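tokens incoming
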């Protein structure tokens, strides 16, 4: 009773608790690490080429097609309905995996999976509409950590059950169906937000604008009464009233205009453009590798012939990524100076890991390479989101998050059409990972050069600042500054 009283007194606790419960059961899907072995095994009997070139690309296309509409309507519908839609889509996925056969059913499954991915924006943004800003950091850490924990628990459970030969892949899908059903039921317990993030701001700004226009209308009234006929004034007043009514009624248009204004403000900074560029390119590669790594594992060690440890690897990899991300909070560096070098160095580590994964015939080496790649990505995406968020308000961060992910999906779609899809080049999985490793090598080269340039610029500015402190009354050109520095040394 005392615990329930505390929950009622702290209004942010209840929605956070329910949302974290939903996030745990929606993410705790033991079948996910073994999706490819299930599809190419006796239950579905697809070939590895069908899974790689005909099924998985559909997820990319549907994710891209649905992301922008879902992003806009998530705020318009006030989050909870979209979370419920995600729960329903998750249930449909596992019902199809359990009971549906044929290529058409799996095509719809992949499309539906794109809807699940697109609606994740509702899960990660819902909490900001029901709690005060003072709790943002705390609830964000809870919501993100619970999904990592759930994925680790689900993967560990799956590996133990499969390795001990307690259940089959079919049973893993049945367990996953039960988990997402609990998530769907939990979603109905979420309190409905009273207001949205973007619409609240656009309504507020429109109210201020309306007041300003009405005030200007009154000023124009006095001027027109002094300098023109009463008839012309009333026609102008009628036009002003009509314009204000249209603007007040078209709430969706106001939101679009507000988003466009915020978009221009977000990307007006050259520094944020560089970091967003890395976000889009690296996330594109991460999505692609996460989507197809099971195919590479099956190529190196076919699941029909040997025992697979996908669940254990995913569990350990997710845990490593979580620890790496958590450690970022304890690194004290000036990220404006060192951040780009970090992006370049660890993108190079990711590239090396991918090349090793691509060239080895040892499945354990491939597993270790995947762990290194994912830990590096989690480290860098945490640094990137932290650096960007520190320069933006929460609403603009949500917008920039959506735009950067949309750009990543556009790039991934192009990559999928050209490299993976059977209507394009339809390359084998080994050649695909060679291209992904080269992509990260390109990113590493770009940001290493940019990081060195930024570091040199910072050092020069520091030297000039020190010279001004030592010689406050003298204005020196650069050669003279260097001569003074050498004399001083």
């Amino acid at each position: 009773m005392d615990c329930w009283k505390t929950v009622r007194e702290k209004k942010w606790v209840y929605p956070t608790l329910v949302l974290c419960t939903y996030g745990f059961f929606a993410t705790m899907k033991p079948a996910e690490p073994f999706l490819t072995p299930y599809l190419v095994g006796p239950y579905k009997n697809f070939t590895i080429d069908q899974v790689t070139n005909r099924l998985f690309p559909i997820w990319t296309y549907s994710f891209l097609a649905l992301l922008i509409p879902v992003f806009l309507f998530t705020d318009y519908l006030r989050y909870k309905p979209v979370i419920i839609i995600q729960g329903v889509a998750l249930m449909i996925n596992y019902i199809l995996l359990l009971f549906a056969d044929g290529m058409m059913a799996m095509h719809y499954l992949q499309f539906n999976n794109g809807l699940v991915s697109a609606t994740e924006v509702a899960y990660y943004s819902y909490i900001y509409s029901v709690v005060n800003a003072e709790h943002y950091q705390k609830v964000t850490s809870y919501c993100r950590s619970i999904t990592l924990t759930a994925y680790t628990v689900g993967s560990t459970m799956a590996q133990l059950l499969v390795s001990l030969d307690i259940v089959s892949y079919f049973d893993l899908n049945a367990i996953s169906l039960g988990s997402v059903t609990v998530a769907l039921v939990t979603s109905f317990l979420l309190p409905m937000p009273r207001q949205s993030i973007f619409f609240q701001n656009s309504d507020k700004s429109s109210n201020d604008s309306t007041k300003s226009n009405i005030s200007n209308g009154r000023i124009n009234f006095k001027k027109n009464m002094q300098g023109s006929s009463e008839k012309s004034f009333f026609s102008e007043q009628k036009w002003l009233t009509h314009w204000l009514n249209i603007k007040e009624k078209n709430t969706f248009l106001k939101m679009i205009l507000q988003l466009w204004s915020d978009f221009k403000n977000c990307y007006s900074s050259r520094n944020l453009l560089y970091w967003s560029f890395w976000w889009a390119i690296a996330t594109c590669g991460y999505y692609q590798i996460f989507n197809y790594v099971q195919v590479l594992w099956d190529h190196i060690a076919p699941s029909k012939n040997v025992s697979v440890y996908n669940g254990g690897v995913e569990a350990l990899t997710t845990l490593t990524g979580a620890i790496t991300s958590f450690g970022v909070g304890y690194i004290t560096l000036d990220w404006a100076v060192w951040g780009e070098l970090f992006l370049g160095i660890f993108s190079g580590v990711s590239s090396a890991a991918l090349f090793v994964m691509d060239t080895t015939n040892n499945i354990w080496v491939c597993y270790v390479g995947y762990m290194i790649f994912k830990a590096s990505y989690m480290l860098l995406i945490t640094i990137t989101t932290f650096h960007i968020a520190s320069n933006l308000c929460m609403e603009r961060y949500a917008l920039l998050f959506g735009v950067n992910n949309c750009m990543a999906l556009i790039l991934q779609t192009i990559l999928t059409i050209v490299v993976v899809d059977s209507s394009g080049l339809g390359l084998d999985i080994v050649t695909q990972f060679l291209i992904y490793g080269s992509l990260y090598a390109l990113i590493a080269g770009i940001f290493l050069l940019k990081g060195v340039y930024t570091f040199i610029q910072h050092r020069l500015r520091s030297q000039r600042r020190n010279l001004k402190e030592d010689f406050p009354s003298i204005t020196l050109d650069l050669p003279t500054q260097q001569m003074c520095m050498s004399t001083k040394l």
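note: Confidence is low (pLDDT under 50) at residues 202-240, 482-489.
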